[in-house]
Every structure is written in C-alpha cells, then in structure tokens.
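DOMAIN: structural biology
WANTED: fold as tokens
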Amino acid sequence: MDFSSGKYNTILLRSVIMIIIILISFYIMKIKLVTSINVIISKNQNIAKSQNISLGQNISSEQKMACIVYIQDKLGRFGNRMFLIASAYGLARLHSCHLYVELEIINELKSVFILDLSPVLISSSTFNSLTRSSSKSMNRISQSVVCDYITTLTRPNAIPSGTIFELIGYWQSYLHFAKYDEELRQRIFVASQSILGKVSNFFIEFYQRQLDYRPQFLLENHQSFKKQLSQLNSTTWIGIHVRRSDFIPIHYSSDDAYLFDAIKYYTERYSNAHFIVASDDKSYCKKLFRNRSNIFLTPQTFSVGDDLVILSLCQHSIITGGTFGWWTGYLAGGEVIHDKIYPSGCSRREYYYPPWFLIDGNVRAHKNTEYIL
C-alpha cells in the first residue's frame, strides 16, 4: 500500500471540508445581516406609519418654502363653504401647493362628507412648521372673490413658492375646480356612512309602502348607493330644492309657475318620475304639492346635510337660487333646471352655470340691477 498517497488524500479531503464549512458560515452570517437590516427598516416603517408620515416624505428645508392655499374665512352658509373648499382644493392641486383649512370649517363639512383632502391637506402642526420654521418668512397674499373666474390663477407660478395664498369671500365659480370634478364627487363631497344609512331608510320605506317591496341596499359608499337606486327601474328620482325664507324679502324666491313647469318637463320626459323636495319652508311646500302623489317631502327630522345628500342621490334636479341648491344639482349630475330669477353675481354667465344647467333665457348679473347675462 502507498501510505503517502493516502495521507495526501486525507489532507485534501480535510481542506475541502474546511472550505465548505467556511462558505456555509459566511452564507449564514449574510442571511443574519440581511434579516437584521430588514427588521430595522420594518421598525422604521412602523414608526413612520404610527406617526402618520411616510419614509422619504419628511419636510425638507426646501419644502418649507412651498406654497400654501389657505382658508380661514367663514362667510355665508354651508353651500358657500363647499365652494371655498372646492376652489381652494382646485388651486392647490393645480399649483402643487399645500392646503390648509381652519379646523372649524373642516369639522362642519366632515359632519356630512368624508372630505378626503389627503393629497394636499396639511395639519395645524405642519402649517405652523412651514410658516414659522422657515429661514425667511413666507409672503402672504389674499384675494377676495364673489363668483368671477380669475383666469390669471391658471398661469404657471401664479402662486409661487414661498407664498401663502388666502381665499376670502365666496369663490363661486366652478371653473376654479372643474379640472378635479371626479375627485370632488368620488372622494371629497361624498356622504358619510351615517348619513347614507339615514337617507336610505327614506327610500326603503317608499318602496315598501308604494310597491310592497323592501330593497336591500349595500351602503358601501355614496356612488354605489346612487347606482343601486338608478337600477331600480320603477322610479326616476328628481330632486327639488326650494329656498324661500331669506329670499322672499329680496325677491330671489322662485314662483310656483317655475316649479310646476319644471316638474311638467320631467314628468313628460320620464313616465316613472318621482320627486323629492327639500326646503327651508316645508309647510309651504306641503301645501303647494298636496295633490301630487309622486312628490314627497324630506322628513322634519332631516338636517341640512341629510337634505343635501338625499337630493344628490337623485338622477336629475330642479333648483331655486343659492349655493346649496347649486351643489345638489352638481353632485346629482344628470340634467339640472335652474331658475333664472337668481342673480349669479358674475361678470359672465358661464362662470357660475355649467353647460348642463338648463336655464330658459338670460339671468341677472347682480341684485338691484337690470344688467343681464
């Protein structure tokens, strides 16, 4: 036997085994290192999530001078606030600005809507950080608008970096937010679950009373509920908003002939037309429509928000003057008949009335004037 050859083979075998052990150890250490890094990243992501921020989106010193569209004014009523929010959102999106709205206004609208302004909305703490921690103070600009469309705001850098642009007044031109219509309808002015549940009972009771049929609605969201209503072929719902109390003294209130002409239009157009009436003068409407079996008033228990949501769920609309009625027609979609007696307050008719608002004849531009659009 050749013992020297056997000894060499033994040494070679031991060397190979040693190399394999070293490689295995290195591989195990690599796995542990990667796992440790992943754990650290995971922990950081969880921390970021718990603080409602995302990694890579912390405010840098450059971002601290970004533009901010700002609302603190609270003129008018609910419909006016909706115009302010919509216009401010449209401008913030257009110019890649932050949006900051005083909490009182946010809470008022959140009592009705989901109001998901997440792409641009910042909190009070972030607003303070942006405005107070900057190396140089931000330039503050305010603009007061009733309803005209400010075309200069569509230009690039109309709201430059380092500017706080405050909206004052009413901002009642839909053209400031027309580019973001779908976002307003699908994420922002979308009814909350609680209000959807409340108004769904109105429809359930109607179908049970009129047709001895109790529909089962899935209240996932505003749009899906609206779709379910439209698929019930037994009815075409038309919303009617009648504003009277504060309009009668200033001669803005619509007369009975306008309402009945508009009802006639839809009745002839849709054989199964049914009407839902919301008004600040229910006793007047109850008397006016007492002989109409296909016209129903919203319950006394309904709030302003409930009235707005139920009208927005209709397929078509009849509205009198005011921003509340305007928004019921805008959110409902379909055809919208608007009384021309209400002055738009704009210098041009198309600033206030979208093309699908059906108006017979000219409208007054301003109150106490014969100037028409």
